[in-house]
Design brief:
- This protein is mostly beta strands and 186 residues long.
- The protein has one domain (14-168): Electron Transport, Fmn-binding Protein, Chain A (Pnp Oxidase, Chain A, Roll).
- 11% of the residues lie in helices and 38% in strands.
- It has helices spanning 52-61, 74-80, 152-155, and strands spanning 14-15, 17-23, 26-32, 35-39, 42-48, 63-68, 96-97, 106-107, 112-124, 127-139, 159-161, 166-168.
- The strands form three sheets. The chain has a seven-stranded antiparallel beta sheet with strand order 3-2-6-9-10-5-4. Strands 1-11-12 form a three-stranded antiparallel beta sheet, with no helix packed on it.
- A hairpin with an 8-residue loop joins strand 7 and strand 8 (106-107).
- The protein is globular, with a radius of gyration of 18 Å.
- Bound molecules: flavin mononucleotide.
- Flavin mononucleotide binds at residues 16, 28, 30-34, 46-48, 51, 53-54, 78, 81-86, 160.
- Flavin mononucleotide is lined by residues 16, 28, 30-34, 46-48, 51, 53-54, 78, 81-86, 160.
């Protein structure tokens, strides 16, 4: 029997990401788990207006990096979700480099890291939702399969759920999409 637990957000888990910006000439990383695909080539990140420091960087530069987080990065990623860029220099938390997308520091150790352009933004409540378009997507070579596709079991992105404020790891592959349901009517 299902129980109505109220109008709570049930849409978890979501991937943990580290968003890289440059603010006042300094690299800053903040952790963002409220992310979502809005169409094949664009996705959004939802940034609380209280993060005025990071928000200013994203708004002014109109570029950003978004990196998925694996277990090896998790302590540092969690730290980037605690420490405030306005008060704490987080530029040395991850080693990084740049491509031609300015002010979008690529986290060297990330399994997957995208340099992105900001296409647009819209406000919902206290959150600025930035619509991003990846310009480059960098994947660790060992995370690519023999067809050159990203193997997400190998990438092993950490997931987040808000109800219990916990991190989860990914499970195993359970079926092939657009194939698994073909026998439903049989
Ligand atoms: C797992 C995790 C997920 C988070 N997700 C978001 C998010 O989706 N949006 C947001 O605005 N803040 C989120 N935060 C909070 C910010 O990362 C945090 O307040 C950070 O310290 C802000 O850094 P800044 O002051 O350098 O911008 C999250 C924190 C953690 C630990």
């Amino acid at each position: 029997m299902q129980k109505d637990v109220g109008a709570i957000m049930g849409l978890y888990p979501t991937p943990v990401t580290v968003v890289g910006t440059v603010v006042d000439g300094r690299v800053n990383f903040l952790t963002i788990a409220h992310v979502g695909v809005v169409e094949h080539g664009t996705f959004l990140i939802s940034v609380d207006k209280v993060h005025e420091f990071s928000d200013r960087g994203i708004r002014d530069n109109k570029t950003v990096s978004v990196s998925l987080v694996n277990q090896d990065m998790l302590v540092a990623a969690d730290y980037c979700g605690i420490a405030k860029g306005a008060k704490t220099d987080k530029s040395e938390v991850f080693k990084y480099h740049f491509d031609e997308v300015k002010n979008a520091p690529i986290v060297d150790v990330a399994p997957i890291s995208m340099t992105c352009k900001v296409l647009s933004k819209f406000t919902v409540g206290n959150f600025t939702n930035y619509i991003l378009k990846p310009v480059h997507t960098y994947v660790q070579e060992e995370v690519l399969n023999d067809k050159g596709k990203i193997d997400y079991v190998k990438a092993s992105p950490i997931l987040f759920e808000f109800q219990n404020a916990q991190y989860l790891s990914l499970g195993k592959v359970v079926g092939q999409c657009w194939n698994y349901g073909k026998g439903f009517r049989n």
